[in-house]
């Protein structure tokens, strides 16, 4: 009898562990019950996917049945989608149509999100707003000292992103002020920078692509956004393929999987073939074992490293500025990367040109095409590539050490 109880106990533990690995069903939680009821009132038919917490990806959607390739994952009626049409149908519509110069579709959606969040219990979109993230991990939301630890190419893009959002806020303040008749509280308090940052991240990280006809009340920026409640709980995986589009016949946004998915596993979609730099910049996360992973090499410190190496390989390069000018004119100073297969062709080509000897400089056009110039040039290029790789490893170890010291 003791043996049987032991086997039963182990079996239960294995089953519990497998359940944890698959995901913990969260559909019993009040916020999801309210969301599903709200969606049902708008025509959404419950299906075989449930909100769940996963140990590796966090919140996501789990299937309660095996999915086959080509099968429908979710179909969300148009009434459930939050678009610029939704915004124009609200009390904000009158103010948007009168405002000159026209606001962008992006600002219209951000304004609506901020206003509805401020409305609280009175908001018709409260069940959806309640399940949206309270904070985001996109670089635009990170502290300056955290951003400073990012690799140089990503740090530069993160700073550009922060500047862009700040300029968006400054340029929209007059429009926000025009909405004062709609609110008892001062609009400067409601539509502050923190509120816009949250709304911008919500639109940037959670919308699906849905093209809308151009409206005169909006600027000429493409109107291609749609927030899709419940559907936006689907997480990204670079290893799956899906078909996602708005079905004009039944007026619903549909997602069909091109991959199989086992019962009780997480259902994924693919945001696109993005490397981890792009994923962190746009969505605030990175993908483990991402086949599209790339390590970006800053052209600035390639040149600094090159100066150091030339002291060992040859006299100071008098043609360095000319070489850099050639690389810049032919767009070879950006997107220089290491991937799973090693250095990219662009990186090797740029380094090959930088390593041209004085007597080889006239061969720069051949170097840009990837031709072999000389055995010496090939050897020096590989040596420099190895030095850059070692530099990147040391730089990463230094940053990881800083993060470790922060924790203690």
Which tags fit this structure?
48% helix, three-stranded antiparallel beta sheet, alpha+beta, five-stranded mixed beta sheet, 16 helices, 408 residues
Structure description:
The protein is an alpha+beta fold. It contains 16 helices and 13 strands. A 5-stranded mixed sheet has the order 1-2-3-10-7. α5 (105-119) crosses α10 (193-206) and α12 packs across α16. The radius of gyration is 26 Å and the shape is globular. The two termini are 49 Å apart. The model is unreliable at 308-313 (pLDDT under 50).
Describe how the helices and strands are arranged.
Elements: H1 2-22, E1 24-25, H2 30-41, E2 49-54, E3 58-63, E4 72-77, H3 84-89, H4 93-98, H5 105-119, H6 126-129, H7 144-147, H8 152-178, H9 187-190, H10 193-206, E5 207-209, E6 225-227, E7 235-236, E8 242-247, E9 252-257, E10 266-269, H11 276-283, E11 295-296, H12 299-313, H13 320-329, E12 337-339, E13 342-343, H14 345-354, H15 364-368, H16 375-407
Parallel strand pairs: 7-10
Antiparallel strand pairs: 1-2, 2-3, 3-10, 4-9, 5-6, 8-9, 11-12, 12-13
Helix pairs in contact: 5-10, 12-16, 14-16
Overall spatial form: globular
Query: Major sheet: size, sense and barrel closure?
Result: 5 strands, mixed
What is the spatial order of strands in the main beta sheet?
Answer: 1-2-3-10-7
What is the number of beta strands?
A: 13
- Helix fraction bin: 40-55%
Instruction: State the end-to-end distance.
Output: 49 Å
**SSE string, helix = H, strand = E?**
HEHEEEHHHHHHHHEEEEEEHEHHEEHHH
Can you tell me the residue ranges where pLDDT is under 50 for at least 5 consecutive residues?
308-313
What structural class should be given to the helix and strand makeup? alpha+beta
Radius of gyration: 26 Å
Alpha plus pi helix count: 16
How much strand? 5-15%
- Provide the residue-averaged pLDDT: 88
